[in-house]
Amino acid sequence: MLAYLARTLPIVVHAQFRQDGSLISRIERRVLPHELDLNLHMNQARYAQVMELSRTDWVLRSGAWDAWRADGVKPVVASQKITYRRELKLGQRYTLESRCLGLDGRLLRFETHVLVGDRVHAMGEVSLIFIGPDGVLDADALSPLVEPYLAEPLEVVDWRVRR
Predict the structure, then answer these.
(1) Which of 26, 131, 137, 156 is surrounded by the most beta carbons within 10 Å?
(2) pTM above 0.85, yes or no
């Protein structure tokens, strides 16, 4: 629990001061020694952790968290998939870029890219369900809550970002 707070608290505090309504979260990071595995690159489990930090930044900065809490709903991860393309080594700088893409029934599709320059090193896809006072929201109830926060997907061709 303490490790989670140590990772998350700086993101939460920083995001509270940057509530700008942005539909895309960008966080700059560097690979730290405790994130390495035996191959001396970032451990695969750390990718999920840093992607969660990016989603946390997004939900706070976009204003979605305040809106969803006011409506009495909370997002919960229903599924997660990470595709690894290139390794990240000790001290290497990278950017996490996250955005919500759309609805798939009662699931909100969320995407995070781990970028070094224009190269995609990993991509995470997360589906979120929303729980309200009466249980899981259906697609009709969810749609008006999430539509204001949807963004265009990041254009990636051959594992490179096209801007």
Answers:
(1) 137
(2) yes
